[in-house]
Amino acid sequence: MSRPRRPAPPIRAGGDRVIPARADRERGSATAELAVALPIVVLTLLLGVGGLGAGMRMVVLQDAVADAARILGRGDDAGDAGAAVARADPVAGIAVARSESLVCVTASAETRLLGGIVVPIRATGCALDGGR
């Protein structure tokens, strides 16, 4: 038959203060939990900032393709439309599609999150094709 375990004796921490043995075993656990959680929090923040950057780039690209579609819709030079998109994003590729009464410009590019995750972005803008 086994003997029941006796609780560990209290530890004197100077003066009259007594620290129970259990509290002594748990000392530093908050630091360990922070060390585990901190990289996750930092990674989440970095992904959030990268996502905001990609969203801002998307808004700028959307505005540029709307301008390019209006330029082509007025009947101006296609080079001016390409320049409008290039000012917003120099590496974006553009494509122009015309239907009966519309001209649509699509620009596409890639953005990186955390240096390694590639996210494609694409924006399309259309305008009335009154310049033909």
TrEMBL record:
It comes from the Bacteria. Keywords: Membrane, Transmembrane, Transmembrane helix. NCBIfam families: TadE_Rv3655c (NF041390). It comes from Microbacterium azadirachtae. This is TadE-like domain-containing protein. The chain crosses the membrane at residues 34-54. Residues 28-70 form the TadE-like domain. It holds the Pfam family TadE. The keyword Iron does not apply.
